[in-house]
Amino acid sequence: MSEFIIVAREGALTIVTINRPEVMNAMHPPAQDELSAALDAFAADDSQWVAILTGAGDRAFSAGNDLKYQASGARMWRLDKGFGGLTSRFDLDKPLIAAVNGIAMGAGLEMALACDLIIASENAKFALPEPKVGLAALAGGIQRLGRQIGAKRAMGMILTGRHVDAREALSLGFVNEVVPAGEALAAAKRRAAQILECSPLSIRASKQAMMRGFDEPSLADAIRNGREYPASRAMYESQDYIEGPKAFAEKRKPKWLGR
């Protein structure tokens, strides 16, 4: 049974909650292990098509690495798939939404940036403040922020460690939507419902084509090779590939099987 991570399922939606509100949902290695296991289970469960990651309470998504735990001299370890088993998890083709309900600092922001969408409450605050404590955001935060909002804008945050509020994060482009305080999870569920109206195999093929396409040497290569990626092949060979056009022709909603 998990102590630091709560997992709930609503139909094909998995909701994963970091449950350490007493420390602003900061993550120590045991909590990271539990989060990694929860994401492993989501990835492996064919009945689960979309996930939301959030934090318990209304003050924090995650304050990142639990520095007090680290300073206590307790045993530390790193996960193969990055901080929280997320920031170096490059094989998750299912959509993952971050519902940021307060602060997302340091590795907390790195986890949010590793998600496909970020829905933020108005009281959300974002920062990569590691240089202020002699560290650096090397769990993907530096690289992802630069790719997602451009080098100059990213450097403006990274080199100062300054806090960015939800509205500025939206204008910078790394947040998708800002909602009133307390409504981040509900808004993330609405966005998940929109995704769930689509074929899950089409969604995975689309995500995989975009993410792998970034690593192709040219746009032409990305377009040409995208049809041969594993998720694309799975989509072409699925029952849903027939069901979608059939439902359209019959003027009804498709009944997705995910296979």
TrEMBL record:
Q: Which UniProt keywords apply?
A: Lyase
Alphabetical GO biological process terms: fatty acid beta-oxidation
* Xref: InterPro entries: ClpP/crotonase-like_dom_sf, Enoyl-CoA_hyd/isom_CS, Enoyl-CoA_hydra/iso, Enoyl-CoA_hydra_C
Q: Which CDD domains match?
A: crotonase-like
The keyword Phosphoprotein appears for this protein: no
A GO MF term: lyase activity
Question: Pfam families this protein is in?
Answer: ECH_1
Which PANTHER family does the UniProt record give?
Answer: ENOYL-COA HYDRATASE, MITOCHONDRIAL, ENOYL-COA HYDRATASE-RELATED
Q: Which family does it belong to?
A: Belongs to the enoyl-CoA hydratase/isomerase family.
Recorded protein name is Enoyl-CoA hydratase/isomerase family protein
Q: Which organism is it from?
A: Ramlibacter albus
